[in-house]
Amino acid sequence: MRFHPLTTRSDWLSPLGLIHLSASPQGLSGIFFEDQKHLPNVLDWPKDESNPFIEKALEWLKAYFNKPASIHRLPWTTPLDFQSGTEFQQLVWQELLRIPMGKTLNYGELAQRIQRPQAVRAVGAAVGRNPLSLIVPCHRIVGASGHLTGYAGGLWRKEKLLQWEHLSLDSRTSTKSAHE
What we know:
Elements: E1 8-14, E2 17-24, E3 27-33, H1 52-66, H2 87-96, E4 105-106, H3 107-113, H4 120-128, E5 141-142, H5 155-164
Parallel strand pairs: 4-5
Antiparallel strand pairs: 1-2, 2-3
């Protein structure tokens, strides 16, 4: 992953651990748990507590962790900078943005949505490299059986996030809402 040379960062202690947020001049470029897989060397980026992209992301994250079901009242309007990913990864990440809270998809369904049904493994790899966890909701991707599978931030966080979003982990099916 290659990030813009003018990337800056800020850190925030979330209910699920320390999060590093990063932004480039184009938009928010990263939300990383401090111990997640594929973590870029965020400590090389200078701190900027007043970056407007990071400030907006922090506002959104605080609202999400306070009352995730009401997050639709604070729509995401801040530009996202996906330039760290390949064209294929960016396609997958854009599709992840279309998964509403309270719903999940499996990797095969995601591959179908981007019209690459044979690319399930590549889709899985792109999901795992998502630099904007939480906002680009890769935690809403589950295995074909509906069970939890890989999450760069740790399966325990994925489970907590889905619980936060009021998804039943026992009765969930891939595209059913927890409220249906």
